[in-house]
Amino acid sequence: MGSRPRDDERPTLDDVAAFAGVSRSTASRALNDDVYVSTRSREKVLAAAKDLGYSPNQAARSLVTRRAGAIAVVLSEPEERLLDDPYRTAVMRAGYRELADVGCQMVLIFSDTREDLSRTVRFLEGGHVDGALVFAPHRADPLPKSLRLLRIPVVFGGQAANLRRGVHVVDFDNEGGARLAVEHLVAAGRRRIATVAGPQDQGAPIDRLNGWRKTLLGAGLDPEGLAEEADFTLAGGARAMSALLDRRPDLDSVFVASDMMAVGAMRTLDAAGRRIPEDVAVVSFDDNATLAPAMNPPLTSVHQDPREQVHAMVVTLMRLLDDDLKPDKQLLPVSLTVRDSG
To answer: Where are the alpha helices (DSSP H) in 142-258?
Structure first.
C-alpha cells in the first residue's frame, strides 16, 4: 500500500489509489460503484477510502455517466454457420465467461443481412451497451466501416474486414502458425505438402495460406498444384481433399486450415485407402479440445485459445472505457500440439 497523506492534508483520490495499490481510474470506478471493477479491487479501494477518511465530492460524482453494464458480442456470419463452427461457439462461451468475470452482461448479436446491419448499428448507438467485441472476418463486410462512427469503444477479434488503420484488433499469429505446421512436416521428411485452405475472403485463412506457401518456398519445395480452397466445413474439407488427391495423387502430407475441415479431409483419405500418417500426414489449425484429440488418429494441430483472444479483447475494451488508446493490432502467439496424425 502507498503512504498516508500528512494529517494537515485532505486525502485525494490519488492518495486512495496509491494506498489501495490500484490505478486512479480503478479507484474512481470503485468509488462510483462501476460494474467493471472486480470485487477484490472495490473492497481494497473502499477500505483505503475509509482508512484515510476520504470523502468524494458528491456534486462531481453526480455528473458521472451511468453505464449500461452490458457489452455486445457481434458475430458477422450467418446464424446457421455460426452454430456449426466450433471456433465461434468457443468464442461465444468465452465472451460470456470473460464478461461475467468483470461483472458485465453479454448481449449476443448475429449480423448477416443488410437489414441485420442497420439493426445492429441502431442498437449499438441506442445506449443499450457500453462497448462491443466484434468478429467480422469477411473482407467485403460493411459492418466494420459502419461501426467507426459509434460513440462506444469497439474491439475486433481478428482482421476487421479491409480496415487497416484506426481500429483495435486482437488476432492470432495465423501466418506463424502455418509456418510451425509446415516446418514440422518438413522436419518429418515430407516433401509434397498440400494444403486445404480456408475461404480466401477472410484474413485468417489468407494468412495461413501465405504461411504455408512461404515456408514451402523457404524449404526449396514447390507449392504448385498443392492448394485447394474450402469453406471451413466438414463437407468442404472432404471435397477439397478429394480434389487434391485427383490432381496430386503423389502428395505425402496436408496442412488443413481448420480442425473441422481436417475431419472431412481425413474421412476422404480413409475412403481412398490412404493411411494416416504412414501414407499422408495431416496437420491442422485450431486444436479444438473436442475435435482434435478425438480423431482417429488424434490430430496434430496448431493451438489457439479463443478464451485468450476474448480475454485480451475485454482487457482492451475496459481500458478504452477509461482512456484514449492508440489503435493497435495485438498478435497472440500460437503453438503446435503434436499428436499421431502427423
So the answer is: 143-146, 174-187, 203-218, 234-247
